[in-house]
Design goal:
Helix 1 runs antiparallel to helix 11 and helix 3 runs parallel beside helix 5. The protein is an all-alpha fold and 271 residues long. The protein has a single domain, classed as Orthogonal Bundle (ABC transporter involved in vitamin B12 uptake, BtuC), CATH 1.10.3470.10. It has 12 helices and no strands.
Length: 271
Amino acid sequence: MEALHMEFMQNALMAGVLASIICGVIGTLVVVNRIVFISGGIAHASYGGVGLAFFLGLPVMPVTTVFALMTAMIMAAVTLRQRERADTVVGVLWAAGMALGIILLDITPGYNVDLMSYLFGSILAVPRGDILDIAGLAFLVMVLTLACYRGFLVMSVDEEFARARGVPVTLLYFLLLGMTALSVVMVIRVVGLILVIALLTIPPYMAERRAKSLGGMMVLSSLLSVFFCVTGLWISYYLDITSGAAIIAVASVTFFISLLIPQRNGAVATN
């Protein structure tokens, strides 16, 4: 409990809870729409935005956000038109973004930034200003998801049926990848680029095996993410290890344990 009296730990807990809400909602849509590989591509390609920001001497988060959004829109356009080649294009953009970021950082004069904070997260160093940004994103994600919930639901179940019913599948798909890109950029501060995909997929997958509806899956996924973040923070504080890695380690162990528990009848996965 003494750790909670420290401002940096309070900030870390708030950032973890807000990031959990974002990951619970967006991660659920990512998992049920089977675009985990695309979200991973967005996450790793956004590293190019980090390198570009340092090379141009501009704020990291705004530049990375714009770069990630542009990458997401390109991936959305390609995967909609050429589904059979989607994995190849995503893989190329994934590698190209990472390579661009590394090259730009290498040629940036006087570069001395801690690379580990972007690769594995720095939740204990999240300032109050970033928490407000994450809170704003969490609010935006909730509003957009509630406004488009029925469309996302039908699209997730059967895309062709959704088109036949007049659901704007293309618009919703671009919106989903855009929200995924924004979420990735914000959650980078919590677990880093390398581990962000785990927080977007492990809780939703576990929730999918227990929840009976898409909304229930989002709620359960968010609660699981909160548990992973709080427990991971506690472990990292007392063992003095990297917080992002500790959070994902807790999530991974819990995931493998959950595989031993029989799936609940009527779960989203079976419906």
